Amino acid sequence: MSPMGIRLSPLGVAVFCLLGLGVIYHLYAGVISSRIAAFTQKRTVDLRDLLALSVEAAVQGGQEVKRVRETNMLEEKTKGKTKEGASEKLTQGDLNSHRKMYYLIKNTYPFLQVNSEEHDETNNEQGVWNREIPDDILSRVEGVREVPADSITVWIDPLDATQEYTENLLKYVTTMVCVAVNGKPVIGVIHKPFTGKTAWALVGEASNMKPHAIYNMNSPKVIVSRSHAGEVKGFVQKAFGNSSVVLPAGGAGYKVLALLDPIDEEMEKADMYIHITFIKKWDICAGNALLSALGGHMTTLKGQQINYSGDFGNKGGLLASIQLDHQALIDKLTHETLLTNTERLVIHK
């Protein structure tokens, strides 16, 4: 024994430390776990904040889309084929917009699930939302409607209608953000970069859009994709008669806006929107939320609700309407004489 006291061997020191840590753990484990639980429970998001952030993301993405087009620096590529066999375009506008939109949301709420049409991690934008809420949202939407963060899925389309974008058909181009809670779309934002107009809605609260004045179910104007307008024309006329009109258009966002009061002078007016093939959820989620907020509907061609969690695709076709008897439209589309044709178009393409 040392004259100065007890000297522990290295092994003794290690045992002493472990015993000390054990005592500390037992004393504080309950406190630590309760604080972790409290932190987890605090991961909620106010939907009004998320609406304002979604608008800002769509606008910032739209600014990139417009800048790239106006400087003619598209750097156009092909990223593959659609299920219909058409070339799927990718431009610098898509990528720049993705970076702005994706990172603005993720840097503000890192714990949210964000699904984007594009995937580019080479340039992490540093922007964080400034927490400013536009006056039109402040005046129409009450705050403090919080939902658990783990129930949220955000869908962003950084550039809808890329094909039309490359062809300079700019009225069809939009940027879109949608927020789904437990698979149901509750926030929808559709921004038109080349007119600067933005449509938004929070289901159960408010929207800055409204339906247009008159809808016709018997001789409807049906807006459809430019890429397969010929196939859809016969399908529509069998269901609604030869007097029905097919309006070819680009971009799912544009087609939904055509069902509403015109957001700008470039917009067409339609009575319903039909899509007969596979479509990605980032193309349609924002429009679904807008229609739902205004009392409209977006379903598969057989009337099934679309779940915006899980996989990225909707295989059942699409029927969107507002201020019409949606079930009656479904009945016409799924009538026995049309069923075989519907299933062939939707499932086997």
Task: Offer a concise description of the structure.
It is built from 10 helices and 17 strands. By secondary structure, it is of the alpha+beta class.
Task: Give the helix/strand layout.
Layout (H helix, E strand, L loop, with lengths): L9 H32 L2 E3 H24 L6 E5 L5 E4 L1 H17 L4 E4 L18 H6 L5 E3 L3 E9 L1 H5 L7 E8 L2 E9 L4 E6 L3 E2 L13 E5 L3 H12 L4 E5 L2 H6 L14 E4 L3 E2 H13 L3 E3 L13 E2 L3 E4 L4 H8 L2 H12 L2
Parallel strand pairs: 4-6, 11-12, 11-13
Antiparallel strand pairs: 1-5, 2-3, 6-7, 7-8, 8-9, 9-10, 13-17, 14-16, 15-17
Helix pairs in contact: 2-3
State the shape: globular
Mean pLDDT: 86
- Could you describe the largest sheet, including whether it forms a barrel? 6 strands, mixed
* CATH C-level class of the largest domain: Alpha Beta
Helix content: 25-40%
List the total number of helices.
10
Poorly predicted runs: 23-41
SSE succession: HEHEEHEHEEHEEEEEHEHEEHEEEHH
Radius of gyration: 26 Å
Q: Please provide the count of β strands.
A: 17
CATH superfamily of the largest domain: Fructose-1,6-Bisphosphatase, subunit A, domain 1
Strand order of the largest sheet: 4-6-7-8-9-10
CATH topology of the largest domain: Fructose-1,6-Bisphosphatase, Chain A, domain 1
Strand-residue fraction?
Answer: 15-25%
Structural class: alpha+beta
